[in-house]
Design brief:
The protein is of the alpha/beta class and 327 residues long. The chain is built from nine helices and 15 strands. The chain starts with a strand and ends with a strand. The structure holds NADP nicotinamide-adenine-dinucleotide phosphate (NAP). NADP nicotinamide-adenine-dinucleotide phosphate binds next to helix 1, helix 2 and helix 3.
């Protein structure tokens, strides 16, 4: 047994506090894989866990962190040996069982993947759940026939954030030349142009005006991370035969819409779930992230030491791009 530090969230009536606690690595017996964590990251959900009303965590106290990358220490599965570099995103990690915000974590072997060649432990968590989610959405978008035309008009919402910035930079790298990115802060325009946007609009422009059943056909494909009223205003603007990947609800979870874009324009609204994405398909996506999807221009990476993570989580400020947690 080894003593290690874990970040633990505890709930009072109105707040969630984050403190470091000393734990002992579990006796593995025949149950799971013990990993020494090298990197984790901060995802939207990890910040939500700091809100006692979010419902993200089923119970407190809990060590959060929905993903991590590190080295196997001990394993119940012969497929994983001590020293293997592995990654984990989603499943119940940091939700119902202790997650990646600890120096050691134990998870079932079926939640783990060996790192693909050409991705370091740090790069794996620069992507993290956000990059993996973007990869799922893009893999579905790229199956649409209209993407054969690289000048087809595509929209990426929440493009300064984790999921949106990966979707944007990867699409630009793949040669798409008509990419509209949204932000509520037009001071981010240069950053979004740097990632590959060809047009940057204020998110509020999408929701200006009354919500119509159908409006001007503007975008063939959409990667939406915002949901709510933003998605409601996007659907009537999707071209006939168009495709929308709905990844998130940063702007709201309620969707007010009509069937008209679906029955008169044949558009598709595809849900994206990274948490329980089938294991059999994950390896292929990580392979893409290690090769053709690996960005030449990465979204901003804000590096935070594990020892500073509690303070970082307690701050409400939003950072553009990604937060990488180094152990
Ligand atoms: N489906 C899945 O498996 C999955 C996986 C990961 C994430 N998600 C979801 O995807 C969404 C985005 O995640 P993320 O990691 O990209 O988060 P993020 O890094 O916080 O980025 C979200 C972006 O959305 C914009 N935004 C935030 N609140 C907004 C609001 N109220 N109205 C309009 N724009 C707003 C912000 O950009 P500006 O400040 O520039 O406007 C921000 O950069 C979240 O809802 C998250 O839960 C889903």
């Amino acid at each position: 047994m080894v003593a290690y530090q874990a970040l633990v969230l505890e709930q009072t009536d109105t707040t969630v506090s984050a403190t470091y606690q000393t734990k002992l690595t579990p006796d593995l017996a025949k149950d799971g894989v013990l990993v020494k964590v090298a990197y984790s990251d901060i995802n939207y959900k990890d910040r939500l866990a700091m809100n006692p009303k979010s419902g993200v965590l089923r119970h407190y106290p809990m060590t959060p962190g929905v993903d991590f990358a590190g080295e196997v220490v001990e394993s119940d599965n012969p497929f994983f040996e001590a020293g293997d570099q592995v990654l984990c995103t989603g499943y119940e990690t940091g939700i119902t069982i202790a997650g990646g915000y600890a120096e050691y974590v134990k998870v079932p072997s079926e939640w783990l993947f060996k790192l693909p060649e050409n991705l370091s432990l740090a790069e794996t968590m620069q992507f993290g759940t956000a990059g993996f989610t973007a990869a799922i959405a893009l893999s579905k978008l790229l199956r649409q026939a209209f993407t054969a035309d690289h000048d087809t008009p595509l929209l990426i919402t929440g493009a300064t954030g984790g999921v949106g910035s990966f979707a944007l930079t990867i699409l630009a790298q793949l040669g798409f030349t008509n990419l509209t990115a949204t932000t509520r802060d037009l001071q981010q325009t240069d950053y979004l142009l740097h990632l590959g946007a060809t047009h940057v609009i204020n998110t509020a422009d999408l929701t200006a005006g009354p919500l119509k059943a159908l409006s001007h056909q503007t975008f063939t494909g959409v990667i939406d991370t915002l949901g709510g009223p933003v998605l409601a205003h996007i659907l009537p603007q999707v071209c006939a035969g168009g495709f929308v990947a709905t990844c998130g609800n940063a702007a709201g979870a309620t969707l007010e819409t009509t069937v008209m874009p679906f029955i008169l324009r044949g558009i598709t609204l595809a849900g994206i779930d990274s948490v329980y994405y089938p294991r059999k398909d994950r390896k292929e996506l990580w392979q893409l992230l290690a090769t053709t999807f690996k960005p030449e221009i990465w979204p901003t990476v804000n590096l935070v030491a594990f020892s500073d993570l509690a303070r970082e989580l307690s701050q409400k400020t939003h950072k553009t791009g990604r937060v990488l947690v180094a152990f």
